[in-house]
Structure formats: C-alpha cells, structure tokens
# Entry
Amino acid sequence: GDSVTQMEGPVTLSEEAFLTINCTYTATGYPSLFWYVQYPGEGLQLLLKATKADDKGSNKGFEATYRKETTSFHLEKGSVQVSDSAVYFCALTQAGTALIFGKGTTLSVSS
Amino acid sequence: GAGVSQSPSNKVTEKGKDVELRCDPISGHTALYWYRQSLGQGLEFLIYFQGNSAPDKSGLPSDRFSAERTGGSVSTLTIQRTQQEDSAVYLCASSLRDRGAYGYTFGSGTRLTVV
# Structure
C-alpha cells in the first residue's frame, strides 16, 4: 500500500541555519503531498501542499517541491527561527484513501 | 464552529472501563476523520466519515473500537474495555470535501491515559 518515509529526528539546528527534512513516498497513483506541523501543545496544522508533479508548495518561508522522478517532497527553509521548533509530518492522499502520514520529525532550533 | 473541537482534552480511565471521545467538526465540513497518535508511531488512521456514513473503517484496531456520526456533524469515538495499549492522543479532523487535496483541519486532540 501507499506509504510515507521521512527522516528520523530529532534535528537540532542553530537559529538562521538551513533546514532540510527528507520525505519520500510510495504510491501506485498520483498522490497529493502535504507537510503538516505540530507546535508544542498545539494541534496539527497544514503547512504547505502540492497536488501534481513539479508543483512547489510554500508557506512561512518553508517550501517543498513535488518530485515524481525521485518520489520525494523534501521540506526546506533557508533560515530557521526558534519559533520553528515543532514536529513536522509529511503526508499523502489520493482518491480512495485517507491522509497517510510519516512518523514525524522533531525540529529543535536554539538561539 | 471556527475550528474542530474535541472533548475532553484529557481523559484518565481505569483499564477495562469504556470511554467516549467527542469531535465537533467545522460547520459545513462533510468529511470527518479519526486518527491516533502514539509516541514514536506517527499518526494512525482509524476511520473516515462522509456525512453520517463510514465508508472506511479499516483502521479501527479491534472490535472494541467503534464510532458514529449524527446529523452530519458531531462524531463520537467509543473504546470499550480499555487496555493500556489504547493510551494515545486521539485526533479528529474534518475537511470540506471527500479526502480531497485541500488538506484537513485538525482538532487539538484528546489525550487518553489508561491506568
């Protein structure tokens, strides 16, 4: 079945460092891809999405590009802030399935 | 409502007791989903509702778990004869369309602890 694999955490960075969180997927069709974020003590929030190959989703300085050839949707940010500390989840959905999530990657940013 | 509301936010129960978890989705959202979040396990899909019917119950882990939705709105997830392995955060989400590419809106969850 469909699945999402994302890099193990935790990821620990200093403020203003470059962030990459890797995400790859396995799907039989053409899924839509998402990144969700869970800040401490809060619920999951949609961060960005891409619905077809080569689309780039972006929000709050984060971006991810839907790469069909490598079945990837890596999350990047050029300069992280302490307030970006959270758990990040990669997810996919396609017709006939509910959102399928990766296991989450914890990001900790220190000043 | 403005967001997805879940209650209670925390529940501690004794092993063997039944519990009910409630989800109030965003008004007008026809699709509703339940997930379970366990430490180190990510988010596990439990059940999906479209209106009052549940076309996909494939994630319910055992027959101790059941869910219903009434009036196309509020949903209740019931766990009978709770076990310690049921301890987790139970998340509810809703969306405008049927599993569409629009993303889901999640509630803050119910943290269930079985002692």
